[in-house]
Amino acid sequence: MDRVKGPDKRAERSRRTREKVVEAARELFVARGYGATSLQEVADRAGVAVQTVYFVFRNKRTLFKDVVDTSIAGDTESVATMDREWFRAACAEPTAAGQLRAHVRGTREILGRVAPIMPLIAAAAATDPEIAAQWPQGPDPRYTVHYAAAEALAGKPDARPGLSVEMAADLLFGLLSPQLYLIFVRDRDWSPDTWEAWARSALISQLCADPE
């Protein structure tokens, strides 16, 4: 009988090391900025040798891209947003109002991680062409996600009559943007709960039929 293999301890250690480095880099990038943060400082914060950081990520640009990607995803798994369980469950809600509640909640989780680093992306891309090249020009991935949500929403029984997929996608894309989230949560000191309640109410009033 073949012996059942246990978990790959080396792979698990590598995963934990990668996560520690990414989290340390995220904290330093947000606190100090991309340009002012060195890989030695990231290594010190993560509690690893700087050679380990170079071995795993090769350079600071690659590490920065990983910080952005894992902030969007919430983990190191290479699963697209539209394939995530929360997004599929939201789209499967039987009513537009139910889908919006779940969609806003899931988007809030992403924005809480991503919105603080959005200014860093713009600043780093403006000074480093190689960083800018890591995000090719083309359709905004956020819009692609919200458009898919709008397609699921527009045909539901309580969707606003005459609502087009394009209009629904535009409203989701605009009201759930990182920029607007930062205006309310960072600049106006709203709590994430308050922002979520506002966004949910605003979208339901715009995208759902008026109650009789």
Give a short overview.
The chain has 212 residues and is mostly helical. The chain has 12 helices and no strands. The N and C termini lie far apart (68 Å).
Protein traits:
mainly alpha
Overall description:
There is one protein chain. 68% of the residues lie in helices and 0% in strands. It is mainly alpha-helical. Helix 1 crosses helix 2 (39-46) and helix 1 packs across helix 4. The protein is elongated, with a radius of gyration of 20 Å. It starts with 8 loop residues before the first helix and ends in a 5-residue tail after the last helix. The model has no long low-confidence stretch (mean pLDDT 90).
Record the SSE blueprint.
Layout (H helix, E strand, L loop, with lengths): L8 H24 L6 H8 L3 H8 L2 H14 L11 H7 L4 H19 L3 H10 L1 H4 L8 H14 L10 H11 L2 H10 L4 H16 L5
Helix pairs in contact: 1-2, 1-4, 2-3, 4-6, 5-6, 6-12, 9-10, 10-12
Protein name: TetR/AcrR family transcriptional regulator
InterPro entries: Homeodomain-like_sf (IPR009057), HTH-type_TetR-like_transc_reg (IPR050109), HTH_TetR (IPR001647), Tet_transcr_reg_TetR-rel_C_sf (IPR036271)
Pfam family, one: TetR_N
Rg over C-alpha atoms, rounded to the nearest angstrom:
20 Å
Give the count of helical stretches.
12
Strand residue content: under 5%
> How widely separated are the two ends?
68 Å
What order do the SSEs take from the amino end to the carboxyl end, as H and E? HHHHHHHHHHHH
Would you report the number of β strands? 0
Protein name: TetR/AcrR family transcriptional regulator
InterPro entries: Homeodomain-like_sf (IPR009057), HTH-type_TetR-like_transc_reg (IPR050109), HTH_TetR (IPR001647), Tet_transcr_reg_TetR-rel_C_sf (IPR036271)
Keywords: DNA-binding, Transcription, Transcription regulation
Domain HTH tetR-type: 15-75
